């Protein structure tokens, strides 16, 4: 049968924390009082098997964290310190990148740039403070298109010190998979068609690792819904029939609560959106949750089904605006501008590019598996000369011009930026993001303060585009 939307939802157990680490006995009592509590977690990356739809299709061989897809949800409070020991049980090296979290450069998880890759059988300990509240996630940065495409990713939730009042706080990790008729994952990773077009688009959709038929709600209930797009390349455009979702955060950072444009919640690869939804319909009613981003490819994820007993007679009226994160505000008047031209791809205009300091024509690039470039430079690996060197504490504007025929979710590690304008029109909400979706032929300007020292990746999060050359490094001195 075709791989689309199958049966019932299976609950997952999420990793929520462990005991705090005791301070060294030699520390004075005052110093101990100032140390943040450390929450410890363990993640093991290894091969395993999972059933995307129990009793309907065979189990699929995947790559998992702690024996599950997606990996365990790590959930902590803002200001807490985490220590995460990652063991590599794969037959190849790996790392873990903590997507969207502003952390020290040595903890960013980029192989050869910020750390030595974790070899088979070895472990690496990540430790950092969670300075921002919000919805984040984790995934490998070694052979990302393959390792993420085989299942390695998981949610990372940092709760506000004083969260908004809701009845349920729920995470939906959205993913798509390219499955064959026997339910195995297609091994055609890195093929030139995917790389030169939209990326690896799958044929089977999961929410939290399964293909659900229904999602049960209750009349009068208020839900905070954290959406994470963990797919290699698919863009989701979700609609909630009969309901009015309110966007309260983007990429983890608070935004003025507002309705999604045209009622569609658009989430590019690696991006996150937090919604507040009031369940205002009558008991025993049903409504569709649809994905309608791609023209003529609309499909139903599942039905929201109301239980027969309401939770309350009237919806909640509590405020839903989230407190701001401590992100430094860029000074637009003094900000240095940087033009960023995204080039290449099928139907692109790139005839040649710099590869390792050498100019290559498009045929030579294709032989090397490269077809994308930033400012005319196609990168073959994570370590290369910085595309820009920025002084710590200074403000900068990245003016991104997409000269290609494809969408690019552009991600800057270690920082959050304000989205200022699209095609010269100021954005309504000037939202903070770490990944911005740039449409074909679109110009997008973002601004940020270079406040986090180190070498930081800047790349397209369509993972096949990154592998095909659309990545660079920004150095903060």
Structure, described:
- The protein is 6% helix and 40% strand.
- The protein has helices at residues 29-34, 144-149, 192-196, 362-367, 463-467; strands at residues 38-50, 60-65, 74-77, 81-88, 97-99, 123-129, 134-139, 154-159, 168-177, 204-207, 214-217, 222-229, 236-240, 246-250, 253-258, 265-267, 272-278, 286-291, 299-306, 336-344, 352-355, 358-361, 372-374, 388-390, 395-402, 408-412, 417-422, 425-426, 432-433, 435-438, 443-449, 454-460, 471-476.
- The strands form seven sheets. Strands 20, 23, 25, 27, 28, 29 and 31 form a seven-stranded mixed β-sheet that branches. It has a six-stranded mixed β-sheet with strand order 10-9-12-17-14-15, with no helix packed on it. Strands 11-19-18-13-16 form a five-stranded mixed β-sheet, with no helix packed on it.
- It is globular and about 65 Å long.
> How many beta strands in the DSSP annotation?
33
Calculate the terminal CA-CA distance, rounded to whole Å: 55 Å
* Biggest sheet architecture: 7 strands, mixed
The overall pLDDT, averaged over residues, is 90
Unreliable spans: 1-33
Strand content: 35-45%
Helix content range: under 10%
The coarse silhouette is globular
Structural class: mainly beta
Our Rg estimate from Cα atoms comes to 22 Å
Total helix count?
A: 5
Oligomer category: single chain
Descriptors:
single chain; 477 residues; mainly beta; 33 strands; globular; disordered N terminus
Q: What is the compact description of this entry?
A:
By secondary structure, the chain is mostly beta strands. It has helices spanning 29-34, 144-149, 192-196, 362-367, 463-467, and strands spanning 38-50, 60-65, 74-77, 81-88, 97-99, 123-129, 134-139, 154-159, 168-177, 204-207, 214-217, 222-229, 236-240, 246-250, 253-258, 265-267, 272-278, 286-291, 299-306, 336-344, 352-355, 358-361, 372-374, 388-390, 395-402, 408-412, 417-422, 425-426, 432-433, 435-438, 443-449, 454-460, 471-476. The model is unreliable at 1-33 (pLDDT under 50).
């Amino acid at each position: 049968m075709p791989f689309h939307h199958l049966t019932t939802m299976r609950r997952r157990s999420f990793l929520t924390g462990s005991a705090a680490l005791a301070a060294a006995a030699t520390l004075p009592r005052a110093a101990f009082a100032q140390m943040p509590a450390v929450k410890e977690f363990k993640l093991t990356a290894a091969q395993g098997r999972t059933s995307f739809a129990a009793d309907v299709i065979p189990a699929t061989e995947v790559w998992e964290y702690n024996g599950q897809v997606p990996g365990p949800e790590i959930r902590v409070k803002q200001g807490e310190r985490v220590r995460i020991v990652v063991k590599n049980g794969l037959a190849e090296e790996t790392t873990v990148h903590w997507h969207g979290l502003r952390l020290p450069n040595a903890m960013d998880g980029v192989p050869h740039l910020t750390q030595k890759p974790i070899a088979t059988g070895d472990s690496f300990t990540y430790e950092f403070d969670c300075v921002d509240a919000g919805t984040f996630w984790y995934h490998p940065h070694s052979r990302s298109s393959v390792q993420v495409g085989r299942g390695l990713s998981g949610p990372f939730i940092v709760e506000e010190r004083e969260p908004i009042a809701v009845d349920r706080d729920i995470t939906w990790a959205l993913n798509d998979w390219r499955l064959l008729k026997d339910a195995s994952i297609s091994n055609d990773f890195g093929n030139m068609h995917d790389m030169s077009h939209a990326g690896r688009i799958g044929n089977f959709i999961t929410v939290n690792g399964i293909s659900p038929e229904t999602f049960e709600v209750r009349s009068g209930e208020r839900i905070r819904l954290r959406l994470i797009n963990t797919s290699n390349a698919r863009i989701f455009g979700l609609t909630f029939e009969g309901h009015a979702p309110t966007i309260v955060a983007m990429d983890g950072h608070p935004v003025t609560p507002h309705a999604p444009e045209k009622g569609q919640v658009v989430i590019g690869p690696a991006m996150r959106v937090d919604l507040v939804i009031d369940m205002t319909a009558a008991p025993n009613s049903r409504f569709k949750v649809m994905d309608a981003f791609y023209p003529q490819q609309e499909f139903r994820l599942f039905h929201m089904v109301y239980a027969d007993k309401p939770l309350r007679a009237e919806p909640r009226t509590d405020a839903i605006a989230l407190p701001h994160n401590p992100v430094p505000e860029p000074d637009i008047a003094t900000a240095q501008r940087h033009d960023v031209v995204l080039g290449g791809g099928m139907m692109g205009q790139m005839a040649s590019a710099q590869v390792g300091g050498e100019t290559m024509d498009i045929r030579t690039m294709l032989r090397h598996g490269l077809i994308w470039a930033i400012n005319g430079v196609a990168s073959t690996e994570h370590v290369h000369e910085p595309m820009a060197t920025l002084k710590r504490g200074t403000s900068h504007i990245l003016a991104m011009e997409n000269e290609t025929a494809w969408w690019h979710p552009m991600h800057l590690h270690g920082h959050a930026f304000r989205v200022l304008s699209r095609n010269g029109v100021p954005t309504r909400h000037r939202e903070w993001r770490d990944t911005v979706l740039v449409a074909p032929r679109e110009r997008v300007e973002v601004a940020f303060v270079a406040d986090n020292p180190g070498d930081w990746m800047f790349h397209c999060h369509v993972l096949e585009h990154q592998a095909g050359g659309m990545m660079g490094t920004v150095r903060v001195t």
